[in-house]
């Protein structure tokens, strides 16, 4: 319930801030399907959106060293496992986790089929954008919202609902689709590692099926290499038309200590490269740092209040405090968004 | 606990039959590391160990059809997911699951550090090969054996213990290492699918870390593409030397209805190709059969009492009854070991 608790806190802050997501169901997806991964560099530089400097150099030095046959630090291909957090590491996470925007948007989209929600909390408050009332509903209310939008449907239904949302819904502040708020420098990093025969995984606190519905196309990472928190599901045969239904029962929390556990569960070996942005990723980075092979740990540090957001030690979301101390002490790489990244998003801004 | 119950039944039968496993710790592994996957065909036939006939033709016809650009049945590479059961499908499973041989062997190997086991059940009975007493211990005793040999150690320790066992322990009847009792025709099938850009997964009722310790090398399937039953594990930081410890708590049973659930959990999409040998695989085959892409289901039918074992509808292990009916009714492929396979094992026999 850690994650849900976290979400509850964020929801309250989000509501207090008066933000509003705006899914634009009219936009259509076919014309907008040029995902970020289609962008390629024409120069020989594998990381063109990174400014030249110590961090960029440490990445390319590492990759060159461990992939060169005969190098003392050479890593066999099957051990080249890279794990990336998602929220705040591969895409933005402010003012609340984008998955929570999805949940609130979905309550609104589902409302016509639930006329009772007009008078039933916590749904009434969501439908009326009534912040005060939503705050009163607290964690219990949030759990209800999470359950109704993530369970009680088949895996196929959930997948198509989320992917339709990701194709159309827009961020209330940035006025862009959430899936366009991914970090161009990190897309290049993922691609660079893949080109050097690293197998790249997402290891996210977000719900696994939510991630898989859009992340495969956006990041170029196969569904089976996307690890996340999960709820239990159930097989039903249905007279020759089998389906799997998502239940509201919690299965696994892929956050903090859960991340190394999720890595061993889904991947079966330690990563040699791990990227995160918060204290929730610290254990994953520690786990990579304990690899017998030469390894690389990197934190994305949100320092750009103009182009993205600036936050770390005292943030309501994506807190980077203990992790920052440990990164400094252990000389892990720290990507300073403002100074290390030429652009933030694929749009070039 | 389904699987454990099954194991209990098998153990009783195994004990009644008076079988004895013989791990040969003296053999050494370096000289024996030529695994089955190193074997390659020199002819143009991708399935040289399969006799020409309807089953072999149906496999190659299917693969040719769905991988040919422009074919009406063409399947995009990312949807080419193949799932294989392990016990009885990729290696033998008689007279008891090989994982149970491991558990019993391990109790014996661990005994010197547990002098109390000489007088403590169920361990006493295992150490004395006392069948009558073991039978009296029943399921509770088996659970204790399973727990002591699969938990209470780090993932690293478990991995090295199992892989040492797999490198040396021999089957009591076949007098070969368990990992040499894999099916040569199935190794060729896995390779053939991989060569045609299918992503091949193992989806086994066996414990996931047990499988991963040896199956990657033996089958040429990466650890992260091995799905199985699991117990919970826990991250411990240990002053900068983190480890993950396996607890005795059950996490997930990857058998029967659990197989499609495990597939969606670990893979995130339906297979187009599924191979099994028992009723425990039926739901996995049904799940593949519900794929919108042209799909292929195959049962390995144990019909060779001379070269392997012959069993199906009334077997104490790997029962194939409902599944056989459904395979016949739906015209799924049925590989008749005796008639369809030129050889059973990589040794050529």
TrEMBL record, chains A, B:
A Pfam family of this chain: HAD
Residues annotated as signal peptide: 1-21
Polar residues compositional bias, start-end: 24-44
Example of a GO MF term: hydrolase activity
Annotated segments matching region Disordered: 20-52
Highest taxon in the source lineage: Bacteria
Keywords from the UniProt entry: Hydrolase, Signal
PANTHER family: PHOSPHOSERINE PHOSPHATASE
Protein name according to UniProt: Haloacid dehalogenase-like hydrolase
Organism: Hufsiella arboris
């Amino acid at each position: 319930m850690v994650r849900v608790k976290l979400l509850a806190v964020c929801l309250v802050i989000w509501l207090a801030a008066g933000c509003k997501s705006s899914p634009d169901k009219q936009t259509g997806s076919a014309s907008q399907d040029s995902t970020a991964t289609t962008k390629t560099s024409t120069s020989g530089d594998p990381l063109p959106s990174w400014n030249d400097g110590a961090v960029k150099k440490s990445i390319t030095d590492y990759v060159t060293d461990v992939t060169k046959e005969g190098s003392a630090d050479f890593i066999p291909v099957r051990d080249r496992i890279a794990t990336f957090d998602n929220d705040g590491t591969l895409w933005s996470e402010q003012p609340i986790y984008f998955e929570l925007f999805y949940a609130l948007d979905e309550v609104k989209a589902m409302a016509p089929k639930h006329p009772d929600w007009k008078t039933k909390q916590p749904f009434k408050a969501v439908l009326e954008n009534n912040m005060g009332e939503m705050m009163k509903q607290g964690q219990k209310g949030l759990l209800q919202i999470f359950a109704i939008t993530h369970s009680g449907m088949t895996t196929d239904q959930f997948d198509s609902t989320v992917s339709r949302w990701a194709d159309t819904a827009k961020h209330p502040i940035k006025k862009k689709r959430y899936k366009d708020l991914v970090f161009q420098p990190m897309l290049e990093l993922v691609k660079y590692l893949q080109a050097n025969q690293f197998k790249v995984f997402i290891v996210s606190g977000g719900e696994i099926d939510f991630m898989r519905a859009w992340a495969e196309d956006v990041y170029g990472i196969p569904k089976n290499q996307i690890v996340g928190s999960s709820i239990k599901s159930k097989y039903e045969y249905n007279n020759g038309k089998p389906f799997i239904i998502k239940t509201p029962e919690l299965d696994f929390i892929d956050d903090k200590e859960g991340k190394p556990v999720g890595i061993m569960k889904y991947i079966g070996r330690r990563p040699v490269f791990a990227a995160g942005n918060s204290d929730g990723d610290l254990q994953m980075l520690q786990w990579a740092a304990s690899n017998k092979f030469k390894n690389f740990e990197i934190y994305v540090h949100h320092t750009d209040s103009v182009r993205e957001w600036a936050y770390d030690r005292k943030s309501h979301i994506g807190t980077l405090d203990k992790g920052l101390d440990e990164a400094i002490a252990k000389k892990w790489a720290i990507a300073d968004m403002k100074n290390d990244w030429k652009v933030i998003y694929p749009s070039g801004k």
